[in-house]
Structures are given as structure tokens and as C-alpha cells.
Design a protein that fits this description.
Largest sheet: 7 strands, mixed
Number of domains: 1
CATH superfamily: Vaccinia Virus protein VP39
CATH topology: Rossmann fold
Shape: globular
Strand order of the largest sheet: 3-2-1-4-5-7-6
């Protein structure tokens, strides 16, 4: 994927109060970062951040963290954040390191229009592969809860199998989310582009009862 450079990118990244510069130090302590014990939802691969920003506005009693790997993409998101929001943080990181940044504290993961990694030799790089599902095991606080949307049918089928093999129960599965669009559905930039072209949006909620012992 070719990314366009963003003018004043470094200044934007350095000056934004929403970008967490050293997220590893909050591992297991994100409630302290937000200064409350509200649920924490994360979006892995937030893109330009429309989904995570609008969710933070709509649900002030939930803490949201947007995760994105690329500087230029993060720099496009940060200036669009409402400065009054106190329940939103942005983390710039590779998702492979997610279990170094979170520990037993996440209540929901959003996987929206993730990179499909179409070549078979790259399938384990998919955010719904067993590699990542194993990492997610260590970051959830209670029951495991993953909400996924994609326009890619191959990735969707792969993910359904991956979730099922890992013991997740599939709920609210749809092959065309926008055909009967739920009220107050918050979309992503990619989603708007695809749905405007008449492309179906695949969606599922994968849930797994936690076997963790509360201490």
C-alpha cells in the first residue's frame, strides 16, 4: 500500500494530546490512563479514524483506543479529533506487539476492513489468524468479544473458520450489513466508499466465554 506523505506530519504527531507516545508503560494500567474503570474498546487498524472518533463521541462512558501502524495515516486522523473528548486515545504501533501494550483489560476489539493479505503464505498475518487470536487471549479482561467488518469475502470466510476453530460463537452474521442497516450504524471511510459502489459489507460478532480466573 502506497501512503501519501502528510505535510507537517512530525509536528502533528508530536503536538497531539491524543497520541500516546509510550503506550507500553500503560500495559495493564489503561484504566489509570483514562482515570476511570469504564469498558475499553480498541480498533486495530483504525485508518483515518472516522469509526473510532464517532464512537467516542456517541458513547462517552466507554473508553476507545485507535491503533494504527503508519505515521501518515495517524497524522490524518489526529487533527480531526474533537478536543473535548476525554475517552479517546490513539496508539501508533504494529499490531504484532499488542500483547506488550495491553494486559487483561480490553472489553472489545474491532477489526474493520483489515488488510486481507491474499497470498496464502501471508495468511498468518491476518488480524483474525490464530497468531493474533492467541495474542488477544492475553488482552481481554472478561469474555472475548471481536466485531469484524470487511468487503473481502475470502478474508471473511477465513475469519469465520478461524474464530470457530478457536472456540468463538458467531453472532449477528450478515453478508450484506447495509441491506438492512442498523439504526445509528457508525461506518468507516473504507466502508462508505465500498457501500456507495454497491459492494456488500460482511459483518460478524465473535464471542467466547472467558475461562480466566478472577483474582
Amino acid at each position: 500500500m502506497r501512503l501519501r506523505n502528510v505535510k507537517n506530519k512530525e509536528e502533528i504527531l508530536n503536538c497531539s494530546p491524543f497520541l500516546v507516545k509510550d503506550p507500553e508503560k500503560y500495559c495493564g494500567k489503561w484504566s489509570g490512563y483514562f482515570n476511570n474503570s469504564n469498558p475499553i474498546y480498541i480498533e486495530i487498524g483504525m485508518g483515518k479514524g472516522k469509526f473510532i472518533r464517532e464512537n467516542a463521541k456517541m458513547y462517552p462512558n466507554i473508553n476507545f483506543i485507535g491503533i494504527e501502524k503508519y505515521d501518515s495515516v495517524v497524522a490524518k486522523c489526529l487533527p480531526k479529533i474533537d478536543e473535548s473528548l476525554s475517552n479517546l486515545a490513539i496508539v501508533r504501533m504494529d499490531a504484532l506487539n499488542i500483547d506488550q501494550v495491553f494486559s487483561n483489560e480490553i472489553d472489545r476489539i474491532y477489526l474493520n476492513f483489515s488488510d486481507p493479505w491474499p497470498k496464502k503464505r501471508h495468511h498468518l498475518r491476518r488480524l483474525s489468524s490464530r497468531v493474533f487470536l492467541d495474542k488477544y487471549t492475553h488482552i481481554f479482561r472478561g469474555d472475548f468479544d471481536i466485531w469484524m467488518r470487511t468487503d473481502n469475502s475470502d478474508l471473511f470466510c477465513y475469519s469465520l473458520m478461524s474464530f470457530s476453530e478457536a472456540g468463538y460463537v458467531l453472532k449477528n452474521l450478515t453478508l450484506d450489513l447495509h441491506q438492512n442497516m442498523p439504526d445509528l450504524l457508525i461506518t468507516t471511510e473504507y466502508e462508505d466508499r465500498f457501500s456507495n459502489k454497491g459492494m456488500p459489507i460482511y459483518s460478524v460478532e465473535a464471542v467466547k466465554v472467558s475461562k480466566k480466573v478472577n483474582k
